[in-house]
């Protein structure tokens, strides 16, 4: 029997897994901005809704929660860096090797829900608090359509951006990219951040439309960036 080996996914529609980010996209994208997924503070939703069997919809989260920035989490937990938060989140889901984990940080983050009613960001998904803001920013660049694909590059569908704003269409670990392959948003499956990949000019225009928390990759920035030099 012939082995069925998938073709290598195109860089304009795929995500690196355990490697340096900028070298992975070399020749495709000039820059990558790591967008940190905000924590959530329910304002109109019962905190008990945040369980797998009753998780709020995208619009419920947008209407019923406020975003809490990682910088604010540093103040609340007295952790020393964004890397501590990254490692704490990864540790809390069992998403990092034991020798790189940070149990103390994970404990401080997990206590936020019980003590302050703050929900930790989920891994591997573009969060509702970022999703529509990004789509509107991409529209401002002159785009009306976006491709939405899976993490393996085996399935993709073209969507009118207005429909993406109104609906829930982005799969876990999905890739969202423009038809001219000049812009990509992708979320690594064990990460609490997404990668905004494009030219520096386009990224700066998107960032100028709102308060997106994060940082630009250097050539040394790893997917598991909290464990290494950012």
Describe this structure in a few short sentences.
By secondary structure, the protein is of the alpha+beta class.
Number of helices: 8
State the end-to-end CA separation: 45 Å
Residue share in β-strands = 15-25%
Number of separate structural domains: 2
Mean pLDDT reading: 95
Shape: globular
Q: Helix-strand pattern, N to C?
A: HEEHEHHHHEEHEEEHE
With strands numbered from the N-terminus, the spatial order across the biggest sheet is 5-4-6-7-8-1-9
Multimeric state of these chains?
A: single chain
Helix content range of the residues, please? 25-40%
- Structure class: alpha+beta
Q: What is the rounded Rg?
A: 17 Å
- Largest β sheet strand count, sense and barrel closure: 7 strands, antiparallel
Tell me the number of strands.
Answer: 9
Q: Segments where pLDDT lies below 50 for 5+ residues?
A: none
Describe this structure in words.
The chain folds into 2 domains: 11-36 and 125-227, no CATH class; 39-116, no CATH class. Helix content is 31%, strand content 17%. It has 8 helices and 9 strands. It has helices spanning 21-24, 58-64, 70-77, 82-92, 103-116, 128-140, 161-166, 200-207, and strands spanning 31-36, 39-42, 65-68, 145-149, 156-160, 175-177, 184-186, 193-198, 214-216. The strands form 2 sheets. The protein has a 7-stranded antiparallel sheet. The longest helix is centred in the middle third of the chain and has 14 residues, at 103-116. The model has no long low-confidence stretch (mean pLDDT 95).
């Amino acid at each position: 029997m012939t082995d069925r080996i998938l073709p290598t996914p195109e860089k304009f529609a795929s995500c690196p897994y355990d490697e340096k980010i900028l070298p992975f996209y070399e020749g495709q994208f000039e820059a990558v901005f790591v967008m940190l997924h905000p924590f959530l503070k329910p304002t109109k939703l019962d905190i008990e809704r945040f369980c797998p069997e009753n998780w709020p919809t995208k619009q419920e989260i947008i209407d019923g929660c406020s975003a809490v920035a990682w910088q604010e989490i540093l103040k609340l937990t007295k952790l020393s860096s964004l890397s501590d938060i990254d490692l704490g989140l990864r540790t809390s889901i069992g998403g990092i090797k034991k020798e790189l984990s940070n149990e103390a940080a994970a404990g401080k983050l997990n206590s936020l829900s019980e003590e302050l009613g703050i929900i930790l960001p989920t891994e591997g998904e573009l969060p509702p608090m970022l999703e529509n803001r990004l789509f509107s920013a991409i529209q401002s660049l002159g785009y009306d359509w976006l491709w939405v694909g899976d993490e393996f590059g085996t399935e993709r569908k073209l969507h009118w951006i207005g429909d993406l704003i109104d609906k829930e269409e982005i799969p876990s670990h999905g890739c969202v990219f423009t038809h001219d392959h000049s812009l990509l948003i992708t979320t690594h499956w064990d990460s609490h951040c997404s990668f905004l990949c494009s030219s520096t000019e386009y990224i700066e225009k998107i960032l100028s439309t709102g308060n997106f928390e994060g940082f630009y990759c250097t050539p040394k920035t790893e997917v598991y960036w909290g464990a290494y030099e950012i």
